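explain this chain.
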Amino acid sequence: MQHKIPDFEPTESRSDLDITGAIISLIGLVLFVWGILMLTKDTSTSIMVIVAGLIILAAFAWFESRRKSNGKVPLLDMGLFKDRNLRVGAIIRLIGCLAMGGALFAVSLFLQSVMQLNALNTGLTTLPMTIGLLIFAIAAPSLSTKFGHKKLIAVGSLIAIVGCVILSYQFRLNTSMYDLMPGLFVLGAGLGFVMSLSTDISLINIPKENENNASGVLTTTQTLGESMGTAIIGVILILGVMGGLSTAIDMYAPDHANDPQFFDDAANYLQAAGTDNITQDNTVMKAVDTIIQEAMGFVMIVTAILLAIVFIATLRLQPKKQ
């Protein structure tokens, strides 16, 4: 297939490569993502690392602006962000990938930890989400000529929110893989519109000579969103478990509110859910079932809120300039 790829004339030389800017941006992004990944272990340290990462990224933006003003080729032309669609599109892709990656992480964790599915069955269960995303992503370009990018992205975010609402009621100890498939398909269908069209609308007003730079911005935000999704939703899941435990004790075992043994039993059951070597205490089982419902439901609500932000951001998109 190599001979079918056209040759392109180089537009820059090796001497134009902004090595300093690349190093600064790398350090900033690594610190930012690392800080998010540390949130569940050491909150105070993670916040300091995140702030340090943001400061370095701000220094990177300043360095790139100075480099361009000195007549040198910047790694990232900060002037690109004057285009509203690129700014909004980058936010849409960041939040969309955060929601998609985080939801998929939480669902996969539930399937393997609670339902005790192997990797193959976990993949089969989440396959409807991929199928929905693929079908609607393929259909999106042709539909956009009739309805426009802005409307379809907005509709897609609303469809994805419906998928989150459906899924929020499906997580229990006795949930089967078939219970999750409809909600996952609807979620994937909505994300298919959002992810496929957000790139086009982001670049629609960018000059051709700057499209490679703008495309790099979108790719970076997508990768960053996926990395952040796993970490942030992990934190949300832990908060959901804590809230669910409190609710479960109030509902089924108010006399055990200060009983550490009951907490240990509930935690052990939660870790061993789906296996044969677990306690059969009915109260503990009900408590753990409530914890799972509360935790996973909370994750889906947060995901829906993120998609609502995508919907609001979509309203800021502009049509193609004539």
Remarks:
- The longest helix spans residues 211-252.
- Confidence is low (pLDDT under 50) at residues 274-278.
- The two ends are 37 Å apart (CA to CA).
